[in-house]
Amino acid sequence: MGLSFSASRSSAATPSPEPGLGDLPESCVAAVLSYLDPPQICRLATLNRAFRGASSADFVWESKLPLNYEDVIERVFEEDGVFFNKGLCKRDIYARLCTANEFDGGAKKVWLDKTTGKTCMLISSNGLAITGMDDRRYWTRIPTEESRFRSVAYLQQIWWFEVYGEIEFPFPAGTYGVFFRLQLGRPLKRLGRRLCNSEHVHGWDKKPARFQLSTTDGQQATKQFYLKDPGKWIHYHAGNFVVTNSCKSMKVKFSMTQIDCTHTKGGLCVDSVVIYPV
What we know:
Blueprint: H1 2-13, H2 26-33, H3 38-44, H4 49-54, H5 58-62, H6 69-76, H7 81-85, H8 90-97, E1 101-103, E2 108-112, E3 119-124, E4 129-130, E5 139-143, E6 151-155, E7 161-169, E8 174-184, E9 186-190, E10 193-197, E11 209-215, E12 220-225, E13 234-243, E14 250-258, E15 268-277
Antiparallel strand pairs: 1-2, 2-3, 3-15, 4-7, 5-6, 6-15, 7-14, 8-13, 8-15, 9-10, 11-12, 11-14
Region (Disordered): 1-20
Protein name: F-box domain-containing protein
Pfam families: F-box-like, PP2
């Protein structure tokens, strides 16, 4: 009797555990996660098993992917049939698209911003049409760690300067800026220190360079800049274009010219053209 009373009293005194985050249904957790950005989802996935499981739900990550992500995959991985046969979940597709994926023979890179899911792109100097590029008297390619493509086109001297490029791509809806990444002076590294050789820099202060872009749906932009600040990589804005609906394909053309033949110009590094949301 005493033992029975003691046991029942002990049982009555023990408080019942309260529900915690781990008791929430995964479907409820996933519904909440769908409103968060990807970094927040990944942080919450470490809380417990329910959050970890919910963070893998396809509908959570499909809302972060571009509406036309399948067109993007087809364009970027057109030669990689394995990508389509892996049966990747939406979270893994998002992670794969957030890495800098090379396409068009390695001349271009594209990725999704990890936070916003918006499309960013780089086009190397190898993917541009540069007048006189094959003549070593004017241009040369130099290796450098300061480029994501590990090399840049370097101009020693020329009279007629023209750089053209184009990209045809299924851009998701949004507004994009086109920028030329340039530097006056030749990058060097000596004893671990970054240096810049300005020996050939001349002519860019006499006339501005003209930057232009156009799209297949009639958008156009023109800007002019004097190139300056030797030793600094600068993004020169050629203009913006707008994609109103996620498209199957849009062609964007862009150029940089300085064709005033009254003087020479030189000492310029052309690294890449950058396209990213603005």
